[in-house]
Amino acid sequence: MTGIFPFSLADLQAHFGADLDVVSFVAHEGAGLWVHGAGSRRRLAVLARPDDPLMGLFRGDSSEFRGGYVLRLCPMDHAHAQALRATLPWLRPALLGLATSAGFGDRLGLATPGHVRALRHVLRRSPGRRLAPLFAQQSMREMERTHRRPTDVLDDATWGAFQGGWRDALGADADHLKTLADVDACAAAGFTFYTIDPGAYVDGEAETAPPAAIEAKVAALPWNKLESTASDVQRRYVGQVVQVDGYDIRLDAASVWRAAAKYGRALAHVTEMARHLAAKGIPFELEISVDETDSPTTPVEHIYIASELKRLGVRWVSLAPRYPGRFEKGVDYIGDLSALARELAIHAAIARALGPYKLSLHSGSDKFSVYPLLSEATQGLVHLKTAGTSYLEALRVIARLEPALFRQIIGFARERYPQDRASYHVSADPSRLPDWMAWPDERLPALLEDFHARQVLHVTFGSVLARFRTELLAALHAHEEAYHAALERHFRRHLEPFVS
């Protein structure tokens, strides 16, 4: 059943007042849908005729409206997130292709409306430019630490995008997948973008191993899984010169064999994961991530990775090399920006020539000095990935509006940091934290600008949520507008360099 929805937004506002979230309102065929109420009272409102097929998808408390229409107030749960995605096509995760894109990690499930506000702002200021969002993005490691499931991540992003009034395509990133079971769980939830992380299979010793050790490592590679031989690798690569956008990249024997020793097992794992995903017969996009390794990915290694994956039939939309310098959590880039700019230019040229595919920046939060360099080098073929910075903005709001709770959180985080930092690239020294107990309340938000405080708070999120989840979420619900406004300000700085 289709038709024209007969009520104007002004009519509905006059009737429902502040309970109607104006930004979320959408008239879809003969029905109206919006977020109704606030805080713990928040529900999905569906206003339709009783015989509208939508009424079979949504369950809740019903009341007569007027003109033969019925208002149904529904819980914002998993079943209704599925129903909402079935009803409004732009809320279904889609394939985004080679469009400039950004992933918005959200450890708390509350940040998406603020992300939407930031993205809408920068796109309004740059008419004709596109920046495609992946509002649902979380790694399995983060899901474990926050006690969330893939369905929770996707549903929270769905409700947040709806509440924020997003009306365009969006994706959903199953981030840093390491096992087939990870793939299965995220595919069942409905993700469309899969980031394969073969870091455990990258041989870091190959970076400095002597030639005899490299030869032994190459001989021990799983050649059956690579569907190749060492002789094939020699014939395909050794002695070749690859020309990309004015760069002549020489594939000398030592560099090729080191690349094979370093990444060969990783490529076999990526191929297995990609084929497992392809066998499901679902639409998907693939990102390959080799960023969480100790040594940078050289241009020769990039060519080897891309060429071998292509030969094995793997198709991907973006690749995250390990760039030189330090991309630590929660802080700006640490290293030589001029050297980084040169490496970005070469990697971007390779991605255009061998793909095209996007370069991806992981640990991308707060790397404000890098964004202009990355945007220029990639010419729009880029994916930015953020995560913990939204959690830090939540803590900034808590520091400003709930200082007593913030003091408890940072004290607890300092205690947990030595254990929780183990799986992250960070260098904060908790002994150098400012004395937050001596600071007046009005200065506490400034702690979120301190290098050591940011990293201590960033990596202890799992422990903090296990101890303070109830209090933290209650405070953010009470100060929702402040949180969304803070996210809008913060993410505008992340996004503007990619649309300017």
Descriptive notes:
By secondary structure, the protein is of the alpha/beta class. The protein is 45% helix and 14% strand. A hairpin with a 6-residue loop joins strand 2 and strand 3. The longest helix is centred in the middle third of the chain and has 26 residues. 47% of the residues are buried. The mean pLDDT is 97.
Mean pLDDT: 97
Helix/strand/pairing class, anyone? alpha/beta
Sheet having the most strands? 8 strands, parallel, barrel
Describe the global form.
globular
Main features:
500 residues; alpha/beta; 18 helices; 8-stranded parallel barrel; single chain; 5-stranded antiparallel sheet
In short:
The chain has helices at 9-16, 78-87, 112-124, 140-146, 150-164, 180-189, 211-219, 223-226, 230-237, 253-278, 299-311, 337-354, 371-378, 389-401, 403-420, 451-459, 461-478, 480-495, and strands at 26-28, 31-36, 43-48, 61-64, 70-74, 101-104, 132-139, 171-177, 193-196, 241-244, 247-250, 285-289, 318-320, 358-361, 382-386. The protein has 500 residues and is of the alpha/beta class. An eight-stranded parallel beta barrel has the order 6-7-8-9-12-13-14-15, surrounded by seven helices. A five-stranded antiparallel β-sheet has the order 1-2-3-5-4, with no helix packed on it. The protein has a two-stranded antiparallel sheet with strand order 10-11.
Layout of secondary structure:
Elements: H1 9-16, E1 26-28, E2 31-36, E3 43-48, E4 61-64, E5 70-74, H2 78-87, E6 101-104, H3 112-124, E7 132-139, H4 140-146, H5 150-164, E8 171-177, H6 180-189, E9 193-196, H7 211-219, H8 223-226, H9 230-237, E10 241-244, E11 247-250, H10 253-278, E12 285-289, H11 299-311, E13 318-320, H12 337-354, E14 358-361, H13 371-378, E15 382-386, H14 389-401, H15 403-420, H16 451-459, H17 461-478, H18 480-495
Parallel strand pairs: 6-7, 6-15, 7-8, 8-9, 9-12, 12-13, 13-14, 14-15
Antiparallel strand pairs: 1-2, 2-3, 3-5, 4-5, 10-11
Helix pairs in contact: 2-5, 3-5, 3-18, 4-17, 7-10, 10-11, 11-12, 12-13, 14-15, 14-17, 14-18, 15-16, 15-17
